[in-house]
Design brief:
This protein is of the alpha+beta class. The protein contains 2 helices and 5 strands; from the N terminus they run ββαββαβ.
Length: about 80
């Protein structure tokens, strides 16, 4: 899922393997480091990660960030 406004893009991704707040923090930190990312909200209970960015992000970049955090990128919701 992706929605664009005049200044920001909001995209929801599915990430598997998150089970707790520490997991959410690890994923949030890695994705937050990507250029153009404004906010990240990871929810372990649903496996959803909502990202607000200045422009659409390349799925490959998000996948690499999630991999670096130690979890599995399962695509967009």
């Amino acid at each position: 899922m992706s929605a664009e406004t005049d200044t920001q893009t909001t995209t929801v991704y599915r990430v598997t393997g998150m089970t707790c707040g520490h997991c959410e923090g690890a994923v949030t930190n890695e994705i937050s480091a990507l250029e153009g990312v404004g906010t990240v909200k990871a929810v372990a209970a649903t496996g959803e990660v909502t990202v607000v960015s200045a422009a659409p992000l390349a799925d490959e970049d998000v996948r690499a960030a999630v991999d670096e955090a130690g979890y599995e990128f399962a695509g967009r919701v």
